[in-house]
Amino acid sequence: MTGWWRFRMPKSGALLNTAMLTVLVLLVMVFIFLPVLWLIISSISTRAELLSVPVHWIPENPTLENYISILVPGSATSEVARTFKITLRNSLVVATSVTFISLLAGSLAAYALVRIRFRFSEILLIGIIGTRMIPEVSLVIPLYILAARIGIINTPLVLMATYLCFSLPFAIWLLAAFFQTIPLELEDAARIDGCSRIRTLFQIILPISAPGLVSTALFVFLLAWDEFFFALIFTSTVAAKTVPVAIAEFTGRYVVDVTAMMTGGVLAAIPPVVLALIFQRYIVSGLTAGAVKG
Amino acid sequence: MAALRGKTSLTLRQRDTIIGLLLIAPSLVIIFGIVLQPILSTLYLSFFDADLGLGRTNIFLGLGNYLDLLADPVFWETIQRTLYFTLVSVGVELVLGLGIAQLIHAHPPGWRILRASLIIPWAVPTIVNGTMWRWIYNADYGALNGLLLQLGIIDKYIPWLTKPFTAMNLVILADIWHSVPFIALILQAALATLPEELEEAAEVDGATPWQRFWFVRLPLLRAAILVALVIRTVEAFRVFDIIYVITAGGPAFGTVTISYLTYLETFSFGNVGRGSALSFLISIITLLLAFIYIRFLYRPEERME
Among B99, B134, B135, which Cα is nearest to A27's? Predict the structure, then answer.
């Protein structure tokens, strides 16, 4: 309970200590929330107010117009706003598929690697985890050439396939850490009762590791939602473009449209932030499993 | 009896191997197709003068691309900038992350809210983070200028992103905001698992708070710190997204890191061979960094369960 800075002091000292720590908490909170607040305020300001000096910290005429023009069909004033909703859908489709495939293939592999001891299983696990060291930029050219040959550039398919290069090894790594925490006895009991390996996996291991599966799914979904580099290279039309690419384009191709940029930013941040806050417990347990037992 | 058991366990093991390989097969096929095959192709391409055109015959250069790079001052300046970015951002993130983790661990009023709040910067997508800070740094209407002017720290608006060194440090600040929570959350989770008795014993023995931190707590955190460091260093060394959005490598190449240079070589200048050589070097350096960390920090006997 005692922090290392908690000096041995009379009661008034402990009070002072608590006060100091509280000030520190507040400082960190200010550092966290100031930029986010400004992002949100910018998204509900009018452009005229945003482009004024000195800065209007509190908008005099807050407006939801920016959100309406992106979200309500037919009300869009610009091409950017019209297409942004489609990119949100693309991101959702890609991230969900990647999460599903990574979890399915990853749980089979992770179980085999940590629970069935066979030749090469150790080497394979290290090798698979090692692929996390390979940056996307080292894979992008051959993948581009391959995708162009098959003809899937500018389709969500190319992202679903290529995102697996980081999401699958990550899922295997995290799931392996979770599976290792399940007591062997449980599994042995099932196997003595005549359960096959596959049935043991689906009826014993997976149900018990539900929290680990949730946690892995969250991390993979967030990774895929966040991914920018492959999306930038592989998609340039609205048919497959994801949200990060759309937001980056606000700053480039179009005349800088600050309000749309900030509104898009808030909309892109809502799904991951809300998911992460709701499933906070799983995020922390995932970080612990990855970090402490890694 | 013993012979019988030996025989069944042998067939069992054989069956296990087959089932094991079958379970791993889908993942291995995927990893081979989109990781191993491409990285080998990249290595192959790095020996050629190649471009993105699919039909042209490539000219074999041997190690030419690598030798060219090593003789190019731009390459070395880029490596320096990348190392600067990595060292400063990861260093500050580790110090702040450790501090915040301990702050949470001391359970002051509001620590739960603080821990929940930390998740927000971590979950905000990198590109959104970048556009947000780019807007904050804006020379004419930015919040940073507005705030500093109202506080009387500056007397006129400053174009923050026009000086290479300042631009680099501001990109680092944006990265710190995004990544400190990651380290803080990992370390506070690790702190929560530490035994209290050791520090109490040290306190009884008259150790000062600083000694307790340095000699008792920090060594126990080594495994968690190692993982946080490896993950963050590898990420920082290949930084791309945030630079693309905030500065696009400018001003005057001042924020071009090694990944950004690879992107420019390959997709802006069309030098696929050179780009491949660069990207292969990134992989090698990344592996090397991870290896060095593990060599110096990993002690298997201290692994926490």
Answer: B99
Q: Tell me whether residue A4 is in a domain.
A: no
Residue A178: give its domain's CATH number. Answer: 1.10.3720.10
Mutate to test the interface with A, among B58, B115, B126, B131 (most CBs of A within 10 A): B131
Say yes or no: A19 and A94 in one domain.
no
φ, ψ (nearest 5 deg) of residue B48: -125, 160
C-alpha distances out from residue A257 to A227, A245, A253, B245, B291, Å: 23, 15, 10, 14, 45
Q: Tell whether the model's pLDDT for residue B248 goes beyond 80.
A: yes
Burial code (b: 16+ CB inside 10 Å, e: under 16) for A155-170 equals bbbbbbbbbbbbbbbb
Contact B227 A290 (CB under 8 A): yes
- Domain tally, chain A: 2
Q: How far is CA B284 from the centre of its chain?
A: 15
> How many H-runs (helices) and E-runs (strands) does chain A carry?
15, 0
* A255 falls within a domain: yes
| B96 close to B232: Cβ distance less than 8 angstroms | no
* Tokens, residue A120: 């090469």
Residues 273-292 of chain B whose Cβ lies under 8 A from any Cβ of chain A? 275-276, 279-280, 282-283, 286-287, 290
Instruction: Find the domain containing B31 and state its range.
Output: 2-37
Range of the domain at A49: 11-67
Indicate whether A167 and A55 sit together in one domain: no
ipTM score here? 0.89
Residue A27 domain flag: yes
Of the three residues A45, A67, A89, the one that is the final residue of a domain is A67
Asked if residues A219 and A276 have their Cβ atoms less than 8 Å apart, the reply is: no
Do residue A119 and residue A79 come from a single domain? yes
Query: Which chain A residues are closer than 8 Å to B190 by Cβ?
Result: 288, 291-292
Distance from CA of B121 to the nearest CA of A (A): 7
- Give the model confidence (pLDDT) of B200-225 as tens digits: 888 888 888 888 888 888 888 888 88
A268 touches chain B (CB under 8 A): yes
Query: Do B27 and B80 lie in a common domain?
Result: no
Instruction: Determine which of A54-63, B4-13, B146-155 has the lowest per-residue pLDDT on average.
Output: B4-13
Give the residue among A68, A293, A159 at the shortest CA–CA distance from B304. A293
pLDDT in tens, A6-16: 544 445 677 88
CA distance linking residue A186 with residue B289, whole number of Å? 40
User: How many structural domains compose chain B?
Assistant: 2
Q: What is the mean pLDDT of chain A?
A: 85
